[in-house]
Amino acid sequence: MQRPRFGASFAGRRNDSRSPALCSAQLEYSVPRDEEWFSPLTTGVDRSQLRQIIAGLTEGVILIEPDQTIAWANEAALGMHGAEDLAELGADVGAYREKFALRYRNHHVIERYPMERVVAGEAFDEVIVNVRRTDRPDFDVMHRIRSLVITDAAGQPDCLVLVITDVTPQFEAEERFERTFNANPAPAVICRLSDLRHVKVNLGFLEMTGYRRDDVIGRSVYEVDVLSEAKNRDLGIARLKEGGTIPQMEACLRLPDGGTRFVIVAGQPIDMGEEPCMLFTFADLDLRKKAETALRQSEARFAAAFRLTPVPTLLCRAETFEVVGANEAFGRIFGKETEETRNGFDLRDLWVKAEDRARFEAAVATGSALGLETCLRRQDGTERDSLVSAESVTIGEEACILVVLQDITDRKRSERELFAAIEAVMADASWFSRGIIERLSGLKPNENGTRQGLAQAALTPREREVLNLICQGLADPAIGQRLGLTPNTVRNHVAALYRKLGVHRRGEAIVWGRENGFAASLTRP
Hints:
38% of the residues lie in helices and 26% in strands. It is α+β, with helices and mostly antiparallel strands and 525 residues long. The protein has four domains: 20-166, Beta-Lactamase; 173-284, 2-Layer Sandwich (Beta-Lactamase); 295-407, Beta-Lactamase; 456-525, Orthogonal Bundle (Arc Repressor Mutant, subunit A). The strands form three sheets. It has a six-stranded antiparallel sheet. A six-stranded antiparallel sheet has the order 14-13-12-17-16-15, sandwiched between helices. A five-stranded antiparallel sheet has the order 8-7-11-10-9. α18 (461-471) packs across α20, α18 (461-471) packs across α21 (506-515) and α19 crosses α20. Mean pLDDT is 77; it is low at 1-45, 338-342, 446-456 and 521-525.
């Protein structure tokens, strides 16, 4: 016969020579784990000594007669039913059923109450039931019940016992955990360590993987493999088998549709009730992996375009101006050997005039430089007239500057020759009409080599941006959208350009801009 599990025993077994008071006084913790102590107490009708022994137990005990009469209950059993006295429990099993509604923990109705089962002579080890009072809707508790059938010398049931433990706090804690687990957006599953099968899965995991709940619950960790292709899979499996903490590691889950998903998985041992389990939590890496792949592809495309573009182009670090990349066109035009450009050099070494370099660095500090006219030094020491444009970019996680150079040496030489010819013609202009003289005068260069009347065209950085976009053929609305400006602001910048350049039409501004290096636009990576 199954032993009642009352917990720890008291010192010594009951002796008939002891008085009931003495037995009660010597009770330290609980009742012994065998039923020998019932025998002397159940051979006669008087069970007063038995009642005194079990009266102080923390577990509830209910005694039932074979005729279904509820004979007695200790204080713990009454308290677990919210009852003040035995009458409130009911005179017999039928009255108990009318007053108390019992259901299993899955909310299924119990057809045969534990009392009815023990009256039928059935001994059971453990039954978890939800107990509610029909007269008090607020009363809702969870009981763990086991039975004991004591027989007389003839083997007939003589004393029927229900031993009750209030497990309401435990189940309330489990319900709180269940709600928290299911509501947590972080994907998670719980597997039982005894057989390595999944026993719980939350919505976050189902949404991330596309599994259904029934596809996961009851399946082993090898069927729904949460450590699939993990970098430290052997360590994870070893920790899982020994019930130890599984450190974070990257894994690639196999999805039910045949796809995969990159995750970071970690395992933490927990106890659910009295069952050792492992809680697996996941962080979705799929978006990051896709972004990394897209970034690598973008960088590959940028590298190809950077290498093949016919315009001299450099990539340098924003803080130090150290050149970390130069395309073939730069080496061809500025005489830098491939090995030297590979090893890197300082962009600042190219400038002939320190003031031009300072002007370039100040413009770059604001984010970009557009069409700065300067003179750059080649490797052999010769100088090349150039237009320099630059844009701040981020390569990987490093701040860089993309620099585009346009060699205008031949164009500047042609301009100088044209201006010299104009000067020679105007030296003896007596045979020219006044209109021709004024036009030639307007083309004469000043000290800076620009056309007369344009020396005062000190364009602001914003006006240079607007002029650059005008030269690219953009209308005012497109310019406003590109620069984040209102239509009125764009019109004001255009009017200022006309005034400073001394032109009256958009076409004239485009001609001037293209002649002064505003036609080329930066290709953004």
